[in-house]
Each structure stands twice: as structure tokens, then as C-alpha cells.
Specification:
Distance between the termini: 58 Å
Radius of gyration: 23 Å
Number of helices: 11
Strand order of the largest sheet: 1-2-3-4-5-6
Shape: flat
Structural class: alpha/beta
Order of helices and strands: HEHEHHEHHEHHEHEHH
Strand content: 5-15%
Number of strands: 6
Largest sheet: 6 strands, parallel
Helix content: 40-55%
Length: 223
């Protein structure tokens, strides 16, 4: 993670780290590496959100410890003092809304000070409310749930984010008003790109069959 954060920041892009769980040590490790924000999965209650803020923010808002020398170099070489003064306002604290419980407690979660973005995990959310995405199609109840997240965020002056599976869907989400969209994951993009390149290299079935026929003919004629 430390190497990835440094490489991304060096390209002038803000590194955002998705931690594995709402654990204080995980959050501190990500932020101390120089991450410009964190995404925390599977929140369920407003208390979960308040616990997250305690871990992510310096006093007096939270309880994050101060001392890492790695954080400030990912912000263009600011000083320790400048990082401490700016971190609480500048670093993004993002919660994933992807459980039935989070949907039920949505308004309370959105009201928690220090939470910046409500980020929808549509696949887990669909599973949790009994409408999994099995063929790429969202059930109407899942679509309604996503709208509720947007409405709660707007009411409480939060930003919204969501995972997409490709460029077309990402464009749709942007048009719907989402501020932050994960366009595609590497586990989807890489196999698609490799499969497409391999198919192009092999050519069409007809082209392959023609090459095989030519090969057989050359053996018969001795050419």
C-alpha cells in the first residue's frame, strides 16, 4: 500500500485507500502512508460512522495520533505543522452504503459530522436487500435504494459515489448526479482488454479456418 500511495501521488493524482474494515489501526495506517482519503466498507449504523471519524480525524474532532513522516510528502512537501493544520478538513472520509442496515440508518449516518461521501456498493447492497445483480440488471428496489442515498446525501450536504462496471454505466451515474464514480475495476478491465487483444491477434474463425486450409494444402503439394 505504501508504495502504491507514493506512486499515485507522484503522478499528481489523489490516492484513495479502501481499507478492509472499520478498524482504527487500518485507518491510521492508510492515512499515515499519505492517502488523501479512505473508503470504509460495510458500515451499518451511525455509531459505526462516528467511530470512523474518531479514527480518521485529529483532536479535537477525533483521536488520530500524530507523528508519521510519510504523510506530508504526498502533498507536495508541506511541513508537519501544515499537514496537522489541514488534515481534518482536507482528507476525505468515505463510507460505503452497501448493507440493509446502513440503508435503514441512512439519515442518521448522513448526519454524522466528519463524513464526506456516501459511496454506494451496488452489488453488496443488492445482495443485502434481497435483489442481487445477477445478469447486470438492477432490480427496481435497488434503484430506489440508490436514489435514497443520493437524497440523504443532498439533504445533509454530503457528496455521493458509486461503483460502476464500465464506461457506459459510469456515464449514466454521472448524469444521475454522482460526484465520484469508480469507472471500472482492474479485475474486469484487464481480462476484457487481454481477451479483446487475443481475439484480434487470432483473427476471425473464417480467417483461422482459411489459414488451416492453406497449411494443409501446402503439405499436400509440398510447397
Amino acid at each position: 500500500m505504501h508504495e502504491a500511495v507514493a506512486a499515485i501521488a507522484a503522478c499528481g493524482v489523489s490516492p484513495i485507500v479502501r481499507v478492509a474494515a472499520n478498524e482504527g489501526w487500518m485507518i491510521k495506517r492508510a492515512l499515515d502512508s499519505g492517502a488523501h482519503g479512505i473508503i470504509v466498507p460495510l458500515l451499518r449504523t451511525a455509531q459505526d460512522a462516528r467511530d470512523l471519524v474518531q479514527s480518521a480525524k485529529f483532536p479535537p474532532i477525533g483521536q488520530r495520533g500524530f507523528g508519521s513522516l510519510l504523510s506530508m510528502e504526498k502533498f507536495g512537501g508541506i511541513t508537519l505543522a501544515e499537514y496537522l493544520q489541514q488534515a481534518n478538513d482536507s482528507l476525505l472520509t468515505i463510507v460505503q452504503i452497501e448493507t440493509k442496515e446502513a440503508l435503514q440508518n441512512l439519515d442518521a449516518i448522513a448526519q454524522v459530522p466528519g463524513i464526506d461521501v456516501l459511496f454506494v456498493g451496488p452489488f453488496d447492497l443488492g445482495n443485502s436487500i434481497g435483489h442481487p445483480i445477477l445478469d447486470g440488471t438492477m432490480h427496481e428496489e435497488l434503484k430506489d435504494a440508490i436514489v435514497k442515498v443520493q437524497e440523504a446525501a443532498k439533504q445533509h450536504n454530503k457528496q455521493t459515489g458509486i461503483y460502476a462496471t464500465g464506461g457506459d454505466q459510469a456515464r449514466e451515474f454521472v448524469d444521475q448526479g454522482f460526484h465520484m464514480v469508480s469507472v471500472v475495476t482492474d479485475m474486469i478491465a484487464l481480462p476484457m482488454a487481454m481477451s479483446s487483444a487475443l481475439a484480434t491477434a487470432k483473427g476471425s474463425y473464417a480467417h483461422s479456418a482459411l489459414n488451416l486450409a492453406k497449411g494443409a494444402a501446402s503439405k499436400v503439394t509440398g510447397r
